[in-house]
Write a structure and sequence with these properties.
Blueprint: H1 5-25, H2 28-31, H3 34-73, H4 77-104, E1 116-122, H5 127-146, E2 150-158, E3 164-172, H6 176-180, E4 185-191, E5 202-212, E6 230-232, E7 245-248
Antiparallel strand pairs: 1-3, 1-5, 2-3, 4-5, 6-7
Length: about 250
């Protein structure tokens, strides 16, 4: 299995850019510019997984070439068999790493690193649908806890039997949206409801919506764009009445 020259060339360019970002972030002048540093750090964190994977892949290719050289130079039959097994293992590993690199090179959704707003609403199925919606919320909560994400309830509407008619949750953490975005849609379950007395199977549904968390935007207003009006009292009231600014807008 030969390495793809165009892939290697592209990855080497990305690695060079990554090293350049690290050098710029170490520059005291850049470190003093909060916005510039934030942009560099964001790009650095985007490239880091790809560069680390590339370095692992490159190391695998070196090991593979060494194993092949050993195989071609070895005369002992037993040692040749061991070398052949090592080559096969490394070829498989390098193929897996190359496939991972190609996935990492795919265009990313700019919202992938953000948190997410999770909305769950009971659908068809009456009370059983609200119980199903509650189970979905608990499932997402346990998943968030397992990944050390924040899970903050914003809105909650419960049914009379302890189910959930509607819930809105802020899920915070790095990469939350990329992990949850494919959960959007209608979720269905077929089972005998706890509310069913005759043992019949019912189909219940709940809808899930995943929205990227809104990005914080700093708005800068220059002083020249401000209009400030001040007012003073009039009429009787002492000498300082007409000298004191008593209202500003």
């Amino acid at each position: 299995m030969a390495a793809d020259p165009s892939l290697l060339s592209r990855l080497e360019k990305i690695e060079s850019d990554f090293s350049g970002l690290a050098a710029r972030m170490a520059d005291p002048e850049v470190a003093g510019d909060v916005e510039a540093y934030r942009q560099l750090a964001t790009r650095y964190s985007e490239l880091e997984p790809l560069v680390l994977a590339f370095r692992e892949y490159r190391g695998c290719r070196v090991e593979l070439e060494q194993a092949r050289e050993m195989l071609s130079a070895e005369a002992d039959a037993e040692m040749r068999e061991l070398a052949r097994e090592e080559v096969a293992t490394l070829e498989s590993r390098c193929e897996q790493l190359e496939a991972r690199l190609r996935r990492l090179l795919l265009p990313r959704n700019p919202d992938d690193d953000r948190g997410a707003v999770l909305e769950v609403r009971a659908g068809t199925g009456g009370d059983e649908a609200t119980l199903f919606a509650a189970e979905l919320i608990r499932m997402y909560q346990r998943y968030a806890e397992s990944r050390k994400w924040g899970f903050d309830l914003v809105e909650l509407s419960e049914s009379e039997i302890g189910g959930i008619k509607e819930a809105v949750v802020n899920v915070s953490g790095k990469g939350v949206y990329s992990r949850l975005k494919f959960e959007s849609g209608v979720h269905r379950v077929q089972r005998v409801p706890a509310t069913e007395t005759q043992g019949r199977v019912h189909t219940s549904a709940a809808t899930v919506a995943i929205l990227p968390e809104a990005e914080d935007v700093d708005v800068e207003i220059e002083e020249k764009d401000l209009r400030i009006d001040s007012f003073r009292s009039s009429g009787p009231g002492g000498q300082s009445v007409n000298k004191t600014t008593s209202a500003v807008r």
